[in-house]
């Protein structure tokens, strides 16, 4: 394992505190170029405007979600190593699909995602149906390092707030994705270059803004699940470290002492 992949104790502490780990230029060269070219070709030749809402809610290029050039970004590009270190000694279910998200350029009429936690009260699903996971890993394939270029906005430390919400104020079937104080947060934009990667705790609230730049912003995401996630899913919403056994002790030193919303 190279030094650029190995996590330090400071890295782990930052992830526990913020729920987010960012690695600049984790991927580069042919692996990144092949994946970017694959999605660019799909966008140019196979994208259908009448499918925009479905693409945004689920994935662009759905027929390519198991393509080896996309899966190599996770399995061969260093992301799998980062994930393994964060979840160790827990095992994970195999990552076999990629999700592609494109924010269309020039402020296209595209659904804008409000601050949310994935898989909870999704507008296109039954509110009582959970589609959660343990963490998400993403790689910037192309785009501009600017907030106005359709950047992902996330709420550092929001996983602590959401765990309190799920434990005290929420019941399965509630239709709201986040409480009002979280929904009102603008979030921190991910200002990323191609090849930059982000690993984010499932409970970190996030949203996506419109892309007013002239260049599409494209990211490939990989959802990672603890191998017992189906049994732990509801409890994991209320205990942010249930599926991270190696970080539980560290988390005790970073848990917010203020019981009020962040």
Describe the protein:
The chain has helices at residues 9-18, 29-45, 52-57, 68-75, 79-87, 158-168, 180-183, 229-238, 248-251, and strands at 20-23, 99-103, 135-142, 152-154, 188-189, 197-201, 206-208, 217-224. It is α+β, with helices and mostly antiparallel strands. The chain has a five-stranded antiparallel β-sheet with strand order 1-6-3-8-2. A three-stranded antiparallel β-sheet has the order 5-4-7, with no helix packed on it. It starts with 8 loop residues before the first helix and ends in an 11-residue tail after the last helix.
Tell me the radius of gyration: 18 Å
Give the fraction of residues assigned to helices.
25-40%
Query: Strands of the largest sheet, in order across it?
Result: 1-6-3-8-2
**Biggest sheet: strands, sense, closure?**
5 strands, antiparallel
Query: Which blocks of ≥5 consecutive residues have pLDDT under 50?
Result: none
Number of helices: 9
Q: Would you count the extended β strands for me?
A: 8
Classify the oligomer: single chain
Which properties best describe this structure?
alpha+beta, five-stranded antiparallel β-sheet, globular
Summed up, what is this model?
With 262 residues, the protein is an alpha+beta fold. It is built from nine helices and eight strands.
């Amino acid at each position: 394992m190279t030094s650029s992949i190995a996590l330090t104790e400071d890295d782990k502490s930052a992830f526990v505190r913020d729920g987010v780990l960012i690695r600049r230029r984790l991927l580069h060269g042919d692996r990144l170029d092949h994946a970017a070219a694959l999605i660019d070709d799909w966008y140019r030749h196979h994208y259908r405007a009448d499918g925009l809402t479905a693409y945004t809610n689920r994935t662009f290029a759905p027929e390519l979600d198991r393509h080896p050039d996309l899966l190599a970004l996770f399995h061969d590009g260093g992301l799998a190593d980062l994930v393994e270190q964060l979840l160790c000694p827990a095992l994970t279910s195999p990552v076999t699909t990629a999700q592609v998200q494109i924010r269309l350029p020039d402020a296209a009429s595209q659904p804008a995602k409000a601050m949310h936690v994935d898989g909870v009260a999704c507008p296109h699903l039954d509110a009582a149906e959970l589609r959660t996971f343990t963490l998400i890993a993403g790689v910037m394939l192309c785009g501009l390092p600017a907030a106005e270029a359709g950047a992902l906005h996330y709420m550092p430390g929001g996983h602590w707030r959401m765990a309190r919400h799920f434990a005290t104020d929420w019941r399965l079937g509630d239709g709201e994705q986040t409480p009002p104080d979280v929904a009102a947060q603008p979030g921190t934009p991910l200002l990323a270059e191609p090849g930059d990667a982000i690993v984010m705790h499932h409970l970190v609230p996030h949203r996506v803004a419109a892309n007013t730049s002239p260049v599409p912003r494209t990211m490939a995401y990989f959802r990672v699940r603890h191998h017992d996630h189906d049994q732990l899913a509801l409890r994991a919403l209320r205990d942010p470290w249930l599926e991270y056994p190696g970080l539980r002790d560290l988390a005790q030193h970073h848990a917010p002492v203020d019981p009020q919303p962040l």
